[in-house]
Amino acid sequence: MLTSPFGAFAPSRRAHVVEGAPLSVTERVEEELTEAEAALQAARSGARGPTNRGACARHDREDELFIKARDTPAPGKQLSRVVPMVPLGRVADFAAPAAGLVRGRWALPYRAERIAVRVQQLPPATRSACSNGLLKTDALGYPGNGRGKMAKELVGTGAVAKWLSAGDPKGPVIIQGADLTGFASELSKVDLARSTLFGCAITEELRQQVSRQGAQLLPDTEALPRPLRCFPTQLYDVAWLYDGFDPAREDSWKGTPDHKGWTFFMSNDEVTPNQLDLAQSAAARLHDTAMERATARFLADHGAPAVAIMGGHDVRRDAPTYRQVVQIARDLRRKGYLIVTGGGPGLMEAGNLGAFLATESDGAIDEALANLPERNFKSHDWLATAAAVRARFNRNWSSPIGKGQTSLAIPTWLYGHEPPNLFSSHVAKLFHNSLREDGLVTIASGGIIFGPGNAGTVQEIFQDLTQNYYRGSLSATPMVFLSPAYWNRPCDDVLTFPPRKNPNKPLLPLVRQLAAEKDFLSAILASDDVAEIIKFLDRAPPKPKPGLRLADARLKSRFG
What we know:
Blueprint: E1 2-3, E2 8-9, E3 17-19, H1 34-45, E4 56-61, E5 64-69, E6 102-107, E7 118-121, H2 124-127, E8 152-155, H3 157-165, E9 173-176, H4 184-187, E10 196-198, H5 204-212, E11 216-218, H6 238-241, H7 257-265, H8 278-302, E12 306-310, H9 320-334, E13 338-341, H10 347-356, H11 364-370, H12 380-393, E14 407-409, E15 426-427, H13 433-443, E16 447-450, H14 455-469, E17 479-481, H15 484-487, H16 493-496, H17 508-517, E18 524-526, H18 530-538, H19 550-559
Parallel strand pairs: 8-9, 9-10, 10-11, 12-13, 12-16, 13-14, 14-15, 16-17, 17-18
Antiparallel strand pairs: 1-2, 3-6, 4-5, 6-7
């Protein structure tokens, strides 16, 4: 399973079964899942299944099928646990509530249906053979080794060389974006069964060799416009996305990789996505999956909590809120936080600019803003003026940004008419905005700052609010609302004053109501005081329920 902060991708396949496989089993066991298919049909019809294990009930929700299997075991003999949804291509981890270690019959998904897992208690002899009692599929849906022990990922040629030279390399492995043409002899000595090679350079002879060894190959394709590729091995940066851009030459953005990605994905009206064929659509999905993995590696390497800054893309550079966000982002970066934004103009640009100025003197904000005039973000001058400010503090506009200035931008080609701002050090640009929106909220373990914005910002607020609302026993991720009056408009006021004359949003009362229902009012702050905001984000999670914040827990659950 390819997992990431944003989601998961897995191929669909016909259901097969592994019966009672202990964790030490590495051989793939396949047989037709006749009983499960019969149970599935029974669930659809509402009839009793073919076994004596009880009834199957059907629950439809949109296009997903949920099967609830209720065992009726003899006391002390069996334990059952209902799994409401098993994601496509994956069987999650299960532990018996009392015994701790479990085994049972589980199935890979049949088409898009989600199949519940019936769990039985392990006998003592078998229990001792398993280290943690977790049942899980590995990268391709075969029996895996449990959470945290999935196939080793090797990204790039250097990682492969290091793995092969370390002595006694073992599979399965996932190799991405490596040139394997010089490793034929070394790879012939490795058990590559159940390994996968993504976008690797490989000779025909070596391709046949690794195929005989049991590896699967997913080569790059020509479906994306070059230089974009299906399997990028690292995050983009401004210099790469804007390769070919010249601040002195009008319309030079149109020759950049960033513009090519936009015209590939979107039509000229800036609203309607292009109709992609199957190869193009798959290539875009693969690209986003690889970019998600690169984001995960970046976050793991960085280590610090991430604070996301969200707000209107149309906030002017000379607006007081723009300056306020620059200062907040600078101060948070100086304290070690990683600043994350949607990567576009407006308050997103302000957030990345603040991190960019973190290593400069306090007067750098005044100097930068004095040389960053308001321009329409669709114009050449918007990019050219930003390039001038970046060059002012960084040798030239395309030079790498220093470690103390690190920030992450996550823009999308769905809004490709909003070019990425020039002040982030790392850019995880995605085709699909749904992955981007969920990712921004998920990785912001240090909190989210919401500046004035419209529908997109409101959507992000409720995505974050929903995660906090259903956080369980975890502490809530802090939510900061800049410009409290903007978010605190009385609801009935909308009927008296047309929205165009008063863009303020009646949001805070509903946010506070939901927070009160689930006891996380202490995670909500509405303030314009920079010092108060920094202090609020810098404090420990609220007591008496210490622990991981929700985004941290989600990341840990996905990456082990």
